[in-house]
Every structure is written in structure tokens, then in C-alpha cells.
Amino acid sequence: ELTAVARRDGIHVILLNELRITARFKLRIRGYVPYVLRNNNANGGVAALIREDVPHRRVELRDVRLQNAEAVAVQLEDGTTLVAFYNSPQKRLLQDELEAFFALGRKIVLAGDFNATHAMWGCNRNNANGNTLHRFINDNNVILHDPGEYTHFPHNGTSPNTLDLVVTSNVAEISRIKTRTLPSDHAALEFSVNGVEAPACRVRLPDYSRANWQSFRAILNEVPIVSDIPDIETLDTLVAAVGAAIRKAADKTIP
User: Fold this and answer.
1) What is the Cα 159 distance to its own chain's centre?
2) Which of 201, 79, 190, 80 lies closest to 145, judged by CA?
3) Which residue stretches of the chain are H helix?
4) 92 near 129, Cβ under 8 Å?
5) pLDDT tens digits for range 120-150
């Protein structure tokens, strides 16, 4: 099915993770150049497949010295480095490894299965990897992109989650990320990048662990309580006032 999708839609780059392939398996799609990293464990392995007419080069990761993550990287003609990324759920997501990927060049696209859950990208709980990724995004000039919906649907019936993400630095604006259902417990992410370099910016995510919740509550308590709501216009006004109070409280009390 992946072959059919690639040919039909003319996809330029395919980043794969958690391949679960043996050393004998040859990953081939006609018209694409494959770069594959196999892993000895049953669930690992990553790959990048680049359409033959797309100028590029492989980026060697010998100096990155990965301990937990698995990755394959290629660089396009415009200097954008694309990284197919996988971090096993049994291994900690390491901040120094994330930093190493974003030191590969100025324009980076890191995409794959982070096995990192956090409320900031729609997960039902935070895990250790999610907290690490949240801190990294908050402290660095990078942007996290998520599809706004779950990407992992476990076959064992446990709750779905958003594990597949894209993190970028200094790249062109990314289109809205869409999901595509494949015969897997993970959905595929689809996105495009235009040819205009994004301006450097610093994106900060709220750090709820350092919020002053007492002050937050005090600010919300300033909103008058209204029990008589005679019409829709009054309701809309009250909703707007509550929303403004929440934003004000967040700006003042959540770093």
C-alpha cells in the first residue's frame, strides 16, 4: 500500500520508523533511493526513501553517538536536513540526543515515533519522554507540529495516543499535518514544506509545574458571577469575559 500511495501522490520523501525487518529484507520502492538502519531488536529500524529526481545526500550520524534513539538523516539541495526518528517506549528520550540532531544544520525536520506523551499535543497523560520533549521545545528555537488527532491505536485495546510528531527548526512553513490510515497500529503523517524559509522564532510552551495556581484562582475570582442570563447575547458576553480572564490569569501566573 505504501508503494501505491507513493506513486499515486508523487511523494518526494518517505520517512519510516519501527520497521520490524530482518537483515535479509530489502526495502525497495521503484523510483526511490532507500537509506535504511536496521536494529537487532524486533521492533526497531528506521529508513528514509528519497525520490530519485530529488537532489540530496546522506548525512552520516557517526558523531551523534546515539544511545537510545534510532535515526537516518538526509540533506536536500536547499540545506534542509530530514531525520527519520524512532525512540523505543522502553528507552528514555535523551535531551542531548535531541540537541545533537538540531546541531546537524540550520534547517532541520525531525519526524517519527517519539513514544512521548504530553497534554500539550493532545495525549491523555504525560510520560517521562513527553516531559523531556516538552522541556526541549520550551527551551530551544524549535517548533512542534502534531496532527491534532491520535496517531497510535494499540491492537491490545488500550487507549489511543499521539506518538508520531514532527519537530522543526528554521524551515519553511509546514502545511497542516494530515493522517492517513495504513495497515498498522500507527497512522501515517503527511505534510508539505514550501520554499520560503521561516523566520527564526522562539516558541514557548506553558510550564504548568511552575504555575502559581493560587494567583490564577484569585484572578478568576474577580469575574462576577451572574445567575440570570436572559438571552444569547448576554451568554456570549459572559463567555468572552471568562475566556479573557483565563487568558489574563495564564499570562500572569504560568511561565
Assistant:
1) 19
2) 190
3) 2-9, 95-101, 128-139, 213-220, 232-253
4) yes
5) 898 888 999 999 999 999 999 899 988 888 8
CB neighbour class for 110 (10 Å; exposed up to 12, middle 13-18, buried from 19): buried
Dist. CA 231–CA 140, nearest whole Å: 47
d(CA 13, CA 75): 11
| Helices 213-220 and 232-253, axial angle in degrees (round to 10) | 150
Q: pTM here? A: 0.72
Q: Give the angle subtended at the CA of 181 by the CAs of 129 and 179, to the nearest 5°.
A: 60
- Which residue from 122, 120, 114, 104 is spatially nearest to 170, judged by alpha carbons? 104
Return the number of other C-beta atoms located less than 10 Å from residue 195's C-beta: 7
- Cα Rg, the chain, nearest whole Å: 21
What number of residues does the chain have?
255
Angle at 173 between CA 104 and CA 207, to 5 degrees: 75
pLDDT, tens digit (0-9, with 9 covering 90-100), for 58-106: 998 877 788 899 999 999 998 899 999 999 989 999 999 999 999 999 9
* Sign of the CA dihedral running 128, 187, 49, 23: positive
